[in-house]
Amino acid sequence: MNKPLDLARIPVDHDDIDTNDSPNEHFSAVVQARMSRRSLLRGGAASAATALFGAVSLSACGGSDNDNVATSPNPPTGNTPATPPAEKLLGFTAVSKSLADAVVVPAGYTATVLYALGDPLTANTPAFKNDGTDGDWENRAGDHHDGMEFFALSATNGPATTVNDRGVLAMNHEATTDEKLSSFFVHANGGTMSLPRPAAEVDKEMALHGLSTVEVRKNGSKWEYLKDSALNRRVHQQTEIEIAGPARGNALMVTKYSTNGTKTRGTLNNCGTGKTPWNTYLSGEENWSGYFNRSATDDAARGNDKSVAALKRYGRNQGDASRHGWETGGAEDRFQRWNNSRKGTSLDGSDDYRNEMNAMGYIVEMDPYDKTKAIKKRTALGRFAHESAAFGKPVAGQPLAVYMGDDSRNEYIYKYVSNAAWATADANPADRIATGDKYLDNGKLYVAKFNADGSGQWIELSVTNSAIAGYAGYKFADQADVVVNARLAADAVGATKMDRPEWCSVNPANGEIYFSLTNNSNRRVEPSGSSQAAPDAANPRAYTDQKGTATQAGNVNGHILRVKEGAAGSTALGFTWDVYLFGAEAKAAAASINLSGLSEDQDFSSPDGLAFSAATGICWIQTDDGAYTDVTNCMMLAGLPGQVGDGKKVTLSYPRANGAANLALDTYVGKAATPDTLKRFLVGPVGSEITGIAETPDGKALFVNIQHPGEGTAAANVGDPSKYTSQWPSNAGYGAGKRPRSATIVITKNDGGRIGT
Ligand code: FEO
Ligand code: CA
Ligand code: CA
Asked: Nearest Cα to 643, choosing from 570, 595, 577, 728?
């Protein structure tokens, strides 16, 4: 929320932000209408893991599209039977909900810590002491590991499609565990809790945000990362990055650092990811606006020009304090850039950082194989709180589509369509970033409107659209202004306000696009104020849930929506949709909340990370939850979905105040979950979110990120490990010190099989 930072209060949830008070019509106005079989895995030591081949179903392959039995093309090595057995997807025993301070995976699987906060990325960087005294942060793993992709390495360190024992992991380091300004686990005494911040603390915190690439390999049966690989890289807040696409060189991008508006420094609050068909890494910048400060008198300093409306729409009112107070680190430019106020006398912003926020909020492209290539912000894909970027299945001769969500309460779902048609030769180009220029700098940006009858439209965000050109809320100067202020353009065309769109992913079996809608505390049957929205067909739930003595309201547990494009495929302007799964507690009312019929082995809350395996087709679902954490830590589930329309229409009925007739609301629910189609696979340590997922091409090694274990620890207790809410991964035998650390784990199957079988 857009209140000045109150240094006395408990930190807000930086992931849960609401800045959309546009008067867009909400849909309602249109619609009247188990411990004994699991392993507690601590580091490399798997306890009680019983690898039983007998546990693998030998049932034969069927012929339907939704068959959950597949024959492995890569049978397990070792004591391989003469005839490879068929494997059963989701053949593992479901993991029970857990409050243990450990990563729990099914019997027969092993999870090993691979790469954690602070791990050195050069031969000369000292081992991580994990006591707050470590330096050289620009050469260490960053904090809050998030989205991640695996890039297999050929013998010459180029892309490979069949190498399964060597690759580069590229990942996001989204944020850092903070309380009252300081990232307390990385400073010796917990750091400063008041302004101004010391330069040394700010430099450390700026360095641990951004991206990393790290070479990993399988050494015998064990995965390890290489601290001295030439492919290791850190991208942080001092890294120069190019502005690409329509906003490059635009007046909105002019700063003291880049007076011609073509470059910036750093990529910030990187959350979800994507992988291009030409083997580069895409990273989404999410809650970046909270890092900027605006003076209490900045509206007047700007002459109350239109930039005030834009800043407000993106979460920065005048007087808003920054999350960490980085702008107070000193007079140097690297600190002052976090003050987004107008301070200079120039008319174009070339003497201050009044436009600095316009350079954050994009999909960023990096070549993980080549450090000499520029990193680029692809402005054509719009500026908002990005999560993942998922490509539709490329079709030769057709434009490429990229699907994206804007994760704040009541924000929107977007699609970008390239002007260039896909040429299969571009799958393996000589210059990958130049290929990105071709497909990602010129195209059309659309926003989604979901209709009550299960259909929907993609509405183009073009400055020539009369609703945008004539929008009363903001005067767009040109197409660059439209992509930089995509939220305002989407308001103008009446896009559907969604329940916090997180990751999206495309089902390789049929091309349908899945979107996590994590939760929405501002969904109400009787909305109050401009920030709340009534339920609609695509965001149909508004209910209350108890967490201990607290009552939670809104769409408490989130849902996963899916979209089937029309016949035109990537360029379709119309689609159909339904809800794949509704998150819920298993015990919740089946008619109104647990609409997907989740059992105790399947129930989850707040879906966030979501990715289909290219190897097995499994839909991996990861949670970042605060609603069900009295019962279980965050988790990862494996799903085998069907298709849009495989379920039924459901009518929800909501009582209304003042004797008004009930609100009757139709929605479309996918086929109910069964034990063969949805199972809990992993539960994480205390305080952690499960996020980021990548796999080797054969699907036999799965990389997962454990973000912010120990969240909820009071900063004052940084010196007393007994008061940490988590001591993972040190309690898993990984690394020095007991301070909790975000980390990448690698999951393997003890019989050498594919993950999720
Ligand atoms: Fe960084 Fe919306 O999760
Ligand atoms: Ca509850
Ligand atoms: Ca997320």
From this structure: 577
Structure confidence at residue 57 (pLDDT):
27
Are the C-beta atoms of 387 and 501 separated by less than 8 Å?
yes
CA–CA separation, 330 and 217 (whole Å): 42
Quote the tokens at residue 506. Answer: 């495309």
Distance from the alpha carbon of residue 387 to the mean position of ligand 3, in angstroms: 6
Tokens of 617: 């087709």
Q: Show the tokens assigned to 658.
A: 């003042």
By the 8 A CB rule, do 16 and 409 touch? yes
Q: Are 503 and 272 in contact (CB under 8 A)?
A: yes
Ligand 1 center from residue 689 Cα (angstroms): 10
Helix H, strand E, coil C: the string for 334-385 is: HHHCCECCCCCCCCCCCCCCCCHHHHCCCEEEECCCCCCCCCEEEHHHCCCC
For residue 209, give the amino acid letter. Answer: H
Catalogue the E-assigned strands of 29-76: 38-42, 45-46, 69-71
Which residues of the chain are modeled with pLDDT < 50? 1-11, 26-81
Q: How far apart are CA 84 and CA 16, in angstroms?
A: 48
pTM of the model as a whole: 0.92
Whether ligand 1 lies within 6 angstroms of the CB of 407 is answered as yes
H/E stretch holding 29 reads helix 27-30
- CA dist 543 and 555 (Å) reads 6
Q: Are 117 and 174 in contact (CB under 8 A)?
A: no
Identify which ligand lies nearest to the alpha carbon of 286.
Answer: 1
Contact 53, 85 (CB under 8 A): yes
User: Which tokens go with 201?
Assistant: 């603390």
**What value, to the nearest 5°, has the Cα angle with vertex 149 and ends 248 and 517?**
80
DSSP-derived 3-state class of residue 492: helix
Q: Which of 750, 7, 673, 708 is nearest to 324 (CA)?
A: 7
Beta strands in 422-473 (DSSP E): 443-450, 455-460
Distance of CA 408 from the midpoint of ligand 1 (Å): 9
Q: Is the dihedral of CA 682, 683, 685, 690 positive or negative?
A: positive
pLDDT for 541-584, tens place per residue? Answer: 999 999 999 999 999 999 999 999 999 999 999 999 999 999 99
- Read off φ and ψ for residue 40, nearest 5 degrees: -90, 110
Ligand nearest to the CA of 16: 1
Report the Cα–Cα distance between both ends of the chain, in Å, rounded: 43
Two tokens at 64?
Answer: 């339907």
Q: Residues near 410 by Cβ (< 8 Å), separated by ≥ 6?
A: 18, 20, 497, 498, 520, 522, 531, 533
Antiparallel, parallel or unpaired: β 363-366 and 233-235 = unpaired
**Which residue, among 586, 752, 740, has the nearest Cα to 74 in the 3D structure?**
752
Please indicate whether residue 502, judged by its CB atom, sits closer than 6 Å to ligand 1.
Answer: yes
Does residue 309 sit in helix, strand or coil?
A: helix
Q: What local confidence, expressed as pLDDT, does residue 84 receive?
A: 57
**C-alpha distances out from residue 218 to 4, 214, 226, 606, 747, Å:** 49, 13, 11, 33, 12
